[in-house]
């Protein structure tokens, strides 16, 4: 039995295309693997706190030397990291804001990219950074106002969502990441519907791929 971590970063509710597609992804996934457990975290409606000076001081103090206030400063981050380690699969719903990720998701990334927890640092080593997270797969559903931000698209150079997430997740050891795009939210009409349909087909392919792999295995 696997555990799936669902992360929704949109502040929208029923109007959110990423929330809708993530929910469809999870439903399809669960249909094929009813024994899998799903943990949901709503970053859009319950945003993580931003990093503070106290947080930084605590994170860079060896665990054995942390004071009770330092441990308290890291308690929420520890919860998120533990949740991440327990997951086998991540599914993220990410609206593109001004060509990057929403602040709520950036705050989440800042909480989980932790020295000594999700990566190690040895300044004397030839390769000083070592990821401490392994064996996980991530699926990222991105919603955009225009279209063509995916690799090879006319607006790909303006896409700072995918490169950032590939870098941040890869830094802690999550290299197996698939992206699904839906666009044309600002245009609406048939253009939006066609884009949503393509995204739904991609979701069906990805969840079907997992089911087929389970059967083959």
From TrEMBL:
Its cofactor is FMN. FMN binds at residues 10, 96-99. Keywords: Coiled coil, Flavoprotein, FMN, NAD, Oxidoreductase. Homodimer. SUPFAM superfamilies: Flavoproteins (SSF52218). This is FMN dependent NADH:quinone oxidoreductase. Binds 1 FMN per subunit. Belongs to the azoreductase type 1 family. It catalyses: 2 a quinone + NADH + H(+) = 2 a 1,4-benzosemiquinone + NAD(+); N,N-dimethyl-1,4-phenylenediamine + anthranilate + 2 NAD(+) = 2-(4-dimethylaminophenyl)diazenylbenzoate + 2 NADH + 2 H(+). PANTHER family: FMN-DEPENDENT NADH-AZOREDUCTASE 1, FMN-DEPENDENT NADH:QUINONE OXIDOREDUCTASE. Residues 189-216 form a coiled coil. Residues 4-203 form the Flavodoxin-like fold domain. The gene is azoR. Pfam families: Flavodoxin_2. Its EC number is 1.6.5.-, 1.7.1.17. It is an enzyme of class 1 (oxidoreductase). InterPro entries: Flavodoxin_fold, Flavoprotein-like_sf, FMN-dep_NADH:Q_OxRdtase_AzoR1, NADH:quinone_OxRdtase_FMN_depd. Quinone reductase that provides resistance to thiol-specific stress caused by electrophilic quinones. It comes from Nocardia halotolerans.
């Amino acid at each position: 039995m696997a555990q799936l971590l669902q992360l929704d970063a949109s502040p929208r509710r029923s109007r959110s295309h990423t929330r809708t597609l993530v929910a469809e992804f999870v439903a399809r996934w669960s249909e094929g693997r009813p024994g899998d457990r799903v943990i949901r975290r709503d970053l859009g409606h319950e945003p993580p706190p931003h990093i503070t000076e106290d947080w930084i001081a605590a994170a860079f103090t060896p665990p054995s030397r942390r004071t009770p206030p330092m441990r308290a400063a890291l308690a929420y981050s520890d919860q998120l990291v533990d949740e991440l380690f327990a997951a086998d699969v991540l599914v993220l719903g990410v609206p593109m804001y001004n060509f990057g990720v929403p602040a709520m998701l950036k705050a989440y990334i800042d909480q989980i990219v932790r020295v000594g927890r999700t990566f190690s640092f040895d300044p004397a080593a030839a390769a000083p950074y070592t990821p401490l997270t392994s064996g996980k797969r991530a699926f990222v559903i991105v919603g955009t106002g225009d279209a063509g931000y995916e690799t090879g698209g006319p607006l790909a150079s303006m896409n700072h969502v995918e490169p950032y997430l590939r870098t941040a997740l890869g830094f802690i050891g999550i290299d197996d990441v698939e992206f699904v795009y839906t666009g044309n939210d600002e245009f609406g009409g048939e253009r939006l519907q066609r884009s949503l349909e393509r995204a739904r087909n991609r979701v069906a392919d990805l969840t079907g791929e997992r089911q087929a792999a389970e059967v083959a295995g």
